[in-house]
Amino acid sequence: MPDFDAIIIGAGPAGSATALRAGRAGLRVLLLDAKTFPRDKVCSDSLSSAVMANVRDLGLEDRLLALDHVPVREISFFAPDGVTVTVPVLKLDSQMRAAGMICRRVLFDEMLFEAARELENVTAMTWCRAADILIKDGRACGVTVDRGGGRLETFTAHVLVGADGANSFVARKMNMPLYPEYRIIAAQAYFRQVIGLRGHAEIHFPEETLPGYLWLHPTRTSQTNVGLALPLESWKDKRPRLEKVLEQALASTSLRERFAFAEQMGRTQVRLLPVGNTLREIHGEGFLLVGDAAGLATPCSTEGVANALVSARIAAEVLTQACRAGDASADSLVSYPGQLWREIGDALQMSRRLLTLRTPKAIGSLIRSASRRPHNAGWISGVLIGSALPSEELNDLLSYLNFFNR
């Protein structure tokens, strides 16, 4: 008999949420992480309405709202030509107590990890770096971890879950395709004394960053999370230093005065992130991939936490069924990618299409339309950040804007 039903490698949002749900279902879970908590991560610190809804579904809404955060009730969009509009952030569920928030990941990730660790049948171990994957008869069945100082330990399980981020050790050991064309590159830093913050999120589209975007997210610590993200293929054309691109964007006409007295806290962090691709292989013999390990970030907004939590919910359901049936073959786990892509696949593909709108003309047109037609502003906001769901109306808009951009 294996040591555990499931071993989850990586205790970020996807890993901790998978452990929490699987533990509640009665499975014996080992949750491992190479670092300890609290620990920070390169991120915009923005938790969308979709994240809030998933946290509520986990029963952790009260714990989340107890963390230091800035409530996000509105979001402002700034076009390259200076046109701007502010729109409300809508709740996905009327019962939600908050539509969105800006919360440091160092706090959010620890909250999820602690919730999972509190369960009696979840064993959580930090400072445990995965050193090898055990394979028997072609199937993943355990992991050897390095606990530091040359101490190696081996644990076995019915199913492994790779929740170990964009450069997933599990994915590499199991020879999963990398899909390098489906990636974004992002730079992020904290500043203080940024002028003109109004307590809500800001999305800017300076020409220096297109087809990417720049964000300004105020935090409760008087610091502002500032960053930009753009598709890797557009960055590859000129391969500029992303730190320099961020500097140029902050020196643009619309932002220069606001950063005149700003002081950067620490260095600029740069990272690559895989984005959602419904062709991506995310399971195999005895294992599943969740969160960034599965490459689930949204192409337009680069937001990954919401889809990570969705993948955790579906993965926990599938691995629970597999463990109870005593079958962790790839065939028994195939319902995981099937369910996941059915739930988020159309939105991922639409988000990728919406990147074609990231031109000065199209963005200016959308923001002007939102300012003139407040009843459509929320929908247009979804188009701008890439969260709009596929519809006939959206297809018509895409056709019009593609013609308009010629």
Describe the structure.
- This protein has 406 residues and is α/β, with parallel strands linked by helices.
- The protein contains 13 helices and 18 strands.
- It is globular, with a radius of gyration of 21 Å.
- The model has no long low-confidence stretch (mean pLDDT 89).
Spell out the blueprint of helices and strands.
Layout: E1 4-9, H1 13-24, E2 29-32, E3 46-47, H2 49-57, H3 61-65, E4 70-71, E5 74-78, E6 84-88, E7 101-102, H4 105-117, E8 122-125, E9 129-136, E10 139-146, E11 152-162, H5 169-173, E12 183-192, E13 201-204, E14 213-218, E15 223-231, H6 232-236, H7 242-250, E16 263-274, E17 283-284, E18 287-289, H8 305-325, H9 330-333, H10 335-354, H11 360-372, H12 377-385, H13 392-404
Parallel strand pairs: 1-2, 1-11, 2-8, 5-13, 11-18
Antiparallel strand pairs: 3-7, 4-7, 5-6, 9-10, 10-11, 12-15, 12-16, 13-14, 14-15, 17-18
Helix pairs in contact: 1-4, 1-8, 2-8, 8-10, 11-12
